[in-house]
Write a sequence for this structure.
């Protein structure tokens, strides 16, 4: 019912029922039915469309074969990659991607001026031929015997394995107060602990012996032989009497 | 024949290993080690030459600049791949949802229009050819 009413209202204002009919107000046409109407569109792809009784009718855009309605992951054969990356939890550090690379690589590149971005921003001088060094040039690399100065010795030398081990130790020990320094002096700590344990055992043995002695004494006190023998009356007995 | 990328990877690994050995030699330098050091330096130059030669083989490999940001921050570049895949999948699902919604809307509109304007719709279908409500 509602639709019918709407339809009537629409029909009242439709071009057909307008005083000029379906005709354009400027161009006079002989075709009153509107079936011979054509739409001419210019531009890159000029076309003539027989639009019939419809205004502004254009050719529908060509439907492309590949749209977002398709599973593009499957279309491009990337399902394997998707499963690979979505399934497991990736480690955050760069070192887990290139585990064989020596040195510390997890620190930001800007810190030690080794960022890849800087290579793009300030490209190095290239184009020159790379030639092996002559003996004179190699003389520039003659070094003094001895270890490196302190400041250069530990650069890029923090081994990852050690760090992992330390972490494991920390985990298994379950000692919250242990720091890396404490780990370094781990040997000393152990001996101290052993000594402490020995001492504890010694103390415990002593206590046990004491308890045994006391028990023995008590037994002797409560035994009838002891009472009759000694002739002493315990305070308890006195009260009960 | 090995792939160009694998070849480059091998060369880079060899170069890095050579540099690592130089660092060990230099860390506590002994006078008799000078010849070995010189050899290592020359090997480094040859390594650079080899890497330079390989650049022509990897011209068609394009690396997104965003990956460099991940590496510069000391993060695993695979995380970038993961993020990209997840974003692409989300977008794909969104677009598919939109297309399906529009398809349903079109079908529903044609059904409704044909019930209200049957003659016009018949003409429209005649022009369009294959336009049928597919509800």
């Amino acid at each position: 019912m509602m639709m019918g009413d709407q339809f009537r209202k629409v029909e009242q204002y439709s071009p057909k029922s307008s005083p000029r009919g379906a005709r354009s107000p400027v161009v006079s046409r002989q075709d009153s039915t509107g079936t011979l109407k054509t739409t001419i569109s210019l531009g890159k792809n000029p076309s003539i469309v027989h639009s019939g009784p419809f205004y502004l009718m254009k050719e529908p855009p060509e439907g492309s074969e590949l749209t977002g309605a398709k599973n593009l992951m499957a279309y491009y054969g990337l399902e394997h990659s998707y499963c690979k990356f979505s399934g497991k939890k990736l480690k955050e550090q760069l070192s887990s991607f290139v585990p064989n690379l020596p040195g510390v690589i997890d620190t930001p590149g800007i810190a030690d001026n080794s960022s890849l971005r800087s290579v793009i921003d300030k490209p190095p001088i290239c184009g020159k031929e790379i030639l092996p060094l002559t003996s004179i040039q190699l003389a520039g690399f003659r070094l003094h015997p001895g270890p490196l100065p302190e400041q250069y010795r530990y650069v890029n030398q923090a081994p990852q394995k050690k760090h992992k081990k330390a972490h494991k130790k920390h985990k298994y020990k379950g000692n919250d107060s242990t720091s890396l320094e404490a780990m370094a002096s781990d040997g000393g700590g152990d001996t101290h602990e052993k000594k402490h344990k020995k001492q504890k055992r010694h103390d415990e043995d002593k206590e046990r012996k004491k308890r045994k002695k006391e028990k023995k004494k008590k037994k002797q006190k409560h035994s009838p032989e002891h009472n009759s023998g000694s002739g002493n009356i315990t305070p308890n007995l006195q009260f009960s009497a | 024949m090995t792939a160009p990328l694998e070849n480059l990877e091998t060369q880079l690994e060899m170069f890095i290993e050579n540099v690592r050995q130089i660092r060990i030699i230099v860390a506590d330098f002994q006078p008799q080690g000078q010849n070995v050091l010189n050899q290592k330096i020359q090997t480094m130059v040859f390594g650079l030459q080899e890497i330079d030669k390989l650049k022509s083989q990897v011209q068609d490999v394009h690396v997104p600049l965003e990956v460099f940001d991940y590496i510069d921050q000391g993060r695993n570049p695979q995380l970038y791949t993961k993020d990209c895949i997840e974003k692409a999948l989300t977008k794909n699902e969104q677009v598919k949802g939109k297309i399906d919604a529009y398809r349903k809307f079109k079908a529903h509109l044609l059904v409704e229009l044909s019930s209200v304007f049957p003659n016009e719709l018949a003409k429209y279908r005649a022009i369009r050819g294959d336009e049928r409500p597919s509800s």
About this structure: The radius of gyration of chain A is 49 Å. The longest helix of chain A spans residues 186-222. Residues 64 and 70 of chain A are 11 Å apart (CA to CA). The first strand of chain A starts at residue 38 and ends at 41.
